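Fill-in record for Cobalamin biosynthesis protein CobW.
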Amino acid sequence: MKKIPATVITGFLGAGKTTLIRHLIEHAGGRRLALIINEFGDVGVDGALVQGCGDEACPDEDIIELANGCICCTVADDFLPTMQKLLDRRTPPDHIIIETSGLALPKPLVKAFQWPDIRTRSTVDGVIALIDADALAAGRFAHDEAALAAARAADPTLDHDSPIEELFEDQLACADLVLLNKTDLVAADRLAALEQGLAGEIRPGVRILRTARGEIDPAILLGLDAGAEDRIDDRPSHHDGEEEHDHDDFESFIVDLGELAGPEPLLAALARSIAAHDILRVKGFLAIEGRPARLVLQAVGPRIQHHYDRHWQAGEPRRSRLVVIGQSGMDRAAIEAALGARMAAA
Ligand SMILES: Nc1nc2c(ncn2[C@@H]2O[C@H](COP(=O)(O)OP(=O)(O)OP(=O)(O)O)[C@@H](O)[C@H]2O)c(=O)[nH]1
């Protein structure tokens, strides 16, 4: 029996994983894809963005959201049963795409494919790591020596490097292919320097390709035939030997804003909040008075983007909700107040 190939898409918060997957679906070339989408926040924004794109390659029932925290920590409870159900289907998909949350370690997920019931029926075709070239060029993955020294002084038991840098390195070390994405935002000579830097973090033989908006021929991404679960020990991780790890370094919350008269005041407040607090990623949908369509809002670091994607549907509550993800200890109350959040009691 032919094993069903599965591709793991990893990459830090906002690197462009969902955008890449949308492109993949739109250019699937007759393959029937199933998607497993994992998010750190409690609101399934990525699933909602991919759902309803109306593509035959990926009907809505083939898009499965795992929103209960990072997939690397919920493998047994969420991921394995989901895979089993997909593989048990009378007509299983041709290829499974797994989008991990931006904070997930890919290795435990690859390891899950060693589980006997999965191993006989599916294989990891490849781990693809997306890198946000803009964020990398801005030094957002490199550790800040001064901040690390201060954190160590405050907590002498601190046994790891910057959590963002560790994640970044883990995701790269597990990859079979690296996509240096968002190349539209970075000059070509800078990109060459970034590639040189990345070369030291990846396994021998792994290629780095440049992409913008995840536009790449699916034939390059799918069919790597890596069988990654069979060579798991080749993929070093900062968390090797640990029974469990946690994501205590990061946290997320939802800001509920109701319907807005217009987006501008919120966009301005958000820009100020991102500059003032340890916010890494914001995403969600806004309802704007007099507008039949929902406004998608995305912020990755200081860069905020928004566009109307589709009409609010009948019965769908017109409300604005944002997921805010950042470093633990963010001043949630101050951020909520700045954004004008509706408090639960209001
Ligand atoms: N300029 C530019 N923007 C991009 C590119 N790829 C993605 N984006 C934008 O970056 C933002 C985040 O993209 P997503 O595809 O949602 O990123 P993600 O990795 O799925 O995000 P998380 O799931 O939150 O980790 C969105 O506003 C995208 O439109 C790119 O190549 N260039």
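KEY FINDING: The longest strand covers residues 122-132.
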